[in-house]
């Protein structure tokens, strides 16, 4: 085998994989229609999934909630286990973050304030002007930016496996390589394309082992969308440019005066509890931590009930804050006295 033959064969194989990558990206996008609708904003179109409250009495409905997905995912990831349950008594709004799923990527789209501006504009088209925001992982960091940038909109926040503070370790090697301006394009069109084709499904199954959603997760959330060459770059940009944004952000957490629930796993190897979740709960004036023993990073799938409980706690805290001082005092006084219990009927007495 001559060197020329080897070089020619290698070049042909690389070209074949690149062609496969382009075909695969096109096929993945056409595999199923978008689950929601498109909303035009100043930063491009945002794909928005909306679930209306099943509770029809407006007085019984709670504040709307916005769900923000993490990296290498889209809005369907947050809808899978949480959306239907939350829609029992409130409107649920689930966007694809800019550049992910079916949403456009604006210039400087890696900046969380740019993402939040587009998302807020899209959410307002649903009629929601005040709401709770829940975010998972990178989506939790975006939730924090949202709450600080628009305090008049955000009533409370729920932060699941949040990345919130500068960390002493770097990012994963494939994220760094994918973001490289010199050879990142080739890496995304070859290595990532092959992984998406032959390894992604097994990787998802391993990551979600034991979760109720695991058997159907890949198809129902259209995971392959996040491994298209362009979207993989956007994910890499988000992650590589996150540290520099968290440095000034973390210094301002003490100014965030809204009810905040942090749900984090003790065995999360992606976002470590002592560095992020525990420190965040301490820094937030109204922060509360629910540390899930044995929980990993995908708590919204492995322990969705803990996430729903966190939302319920935010609702309860908002209800208490909304009471007048006189009403709070009355409830405190009446709680001291035992409730009047109706006398039991005699078993021999005719109940009619």
Gist of the model:
The chain is an alpha/beta fold. The chain has a single domain, classed as 3-Layer(aba) Sandwich (Rossmann fold), CATH 3.40.50.1820. The chain contains 15 helices and 8 strands.
Task: Name its key features.
Alpha/beta hydrolase, globular, hydrolase activity, 352 residues, single chain, 13% strand, eight-stranded mixed β-sheet, disordered C terminus, 15 helices, AB_hydrolase_fold, Epox_hydrolase-like
Give Rg in angstroms: 24 Å
In what order do the strands lie side by side in the largest sheet? 1-2-4-3-5-6-7-8
State the CATH architecture. 3-Layer(aba) Sandwich
Put simply, the count of helices is 15
Structure description:
InterPro entries: AB_hydrolase_1, AB_hydrolase_fold, AB_hydrolase_sf, Epox_hydrolase-like. GO terms for molecular function: hydrolase activity. Keywords: Hydrolase. The C terminus is likely disordered. Strand 7, helix 12 and strand 8 form a beta-alpha-beta unit. The chain has 352 residues and is an alpha/beta fold. The protein has one domain: Rossmann fold (3-Layer(aba) Sandwich). The protein has an 8-stranded mixed beta sheet with strand order 1-2-4-3-5-6-7-8, sandwiched between helices. The termini are far apart.
